[in-house]
Amino acid sequence: MKIKESFLRKLFIVINTLLLSVISIVMLYPLVYVLFASLSNSVELMSYGGILWKPLGFNFEAYRSVSENPMIASGYINTLIIVGVSLLLNIVLTSIAAYFFSRKNVLFQKPIFFYVIFTMYFSGGMIPFFLTVKNLGLYDSRWAVILPTAISTYNMIVMKTSLESIPDSLEEAAKIDGANHMHILFRIVMPLSLPILSVMVLYYAVAHWNAWFNAMIFLQDRNKFPLQLILREILIQNNTDLMNQDANEMDAQAISESIKYAIIIVSTLPILCVYPFLQKYFVKGVMSGAVKG
Fold first, then answer.
1. What is the pLDDT of residues 137-192, one digit of tens each?
2. Which tens digit of pLDDT belongs to each residue from 181-195?
3. How far apart are CA 97 and CA 157, in angstroms?
4. pLDDT, tens digit, for every residue of 272-293?
5. CATH of residue 132
6. Is residue 8 part of a domain?
7. How many degrees, rounded to 5, is the angle at CA 77 between CA 75 and CA 78?
8. 18 in any annotated domain
9. pLDDT band for position 124 (cuts 50, 70, 90)
10. On the CB side of 259, how many CA atoms lie within 13 Å of its CA?
11. How far is CA 186 from CA 176, 191, 192, 194, 282, in A?
């Protein structure tokens, strides 16, 4: 019986490894294809069909065109500003709200929490949202992209569940020493909550980095456009004319394709580089925020 169980266990490991390997290849190949296509010769890429195993006529022409486009640099700066300011607001406000809802015997805690949860499922709609932002004087301002997303109810609930696992004795001891709630939150609770904070940083950073819809609605000045909105224009509207002015008409379409792939890599690579630094805390933070106790 032990030999049979051992054989079945080994068979399971082999099948599981093969299955996960296939899934990994399927998930990674689109990114690898985009990378190879961005490094390929434009004309050869347009005439090539099938699976791309390596760059065709290796060159950096597409990346040169991207680096010379002023809108890409402007979009990067705007995105970094939006992500940086938004992350600061997100972490501070989410931490304060989660701390408030995770404490015991707080006056009116349940009705306020119900009101907050209500906003997850019901909203006024796009038109009231637009009119509210416009009447607040935020239209065509970066704050129109930052302030409406200052806190996520879902992320706050995840963080609240995690903070509930911190022993009450720590808070009681801090109060005996004369600490107020702000001292308890920022000097005791948050240092003990690095895993869930890293998860919040990753969730919010990815959301802000990929966001383009609010910017499309509220921003009119192209100098304030984030990178993803510029990328959307290039990919959907095929707006690469300013980036290949030196090309003749015959090669213009081919060069445009390479530029699109290069922009995808340029806009995706920074956020991919963030994850390895947060991976240490990510799994622990997700689990602590998902299960109480």
1. 999 999 999 999 999 999 999 899 888 888 888 888 888 888 888 888 888 888 88
2. 888 888 888 888 888
3. 9
4. 877 777 666 666 555 554 544 4
5. 1.10.3720.10
6. no
7. 65
8. no
9. confident
10. 27
11. 17, 7, 10, 12, 21
Helix/strand/coil for 62: helix
Number of domains in the chain: 1
What are the structure tokens assigned to 67, written together? 């680096």
Cα separation of 17 and 92, whole Å? 42
Q: Which residue has the tokens 């501070």?
A: 92
Q: Is residue 224 part of a domain?
A: yes
Domain region containing 248: 66-290
Residues 96, 217: contact at Cβ < 8 Å?
A: no
The three-point CA angle 99-103-107 to 5° equals 110
Does residue 57 lie in a domain region?
A: no
Question: By the 8 A CB rule, do 243 and 69 touch?
Answer: yes
Amino acid (one-letter) located at 71: M
- Find, among 154, 144, 136, the residue nearest to 229 by Cα: 144
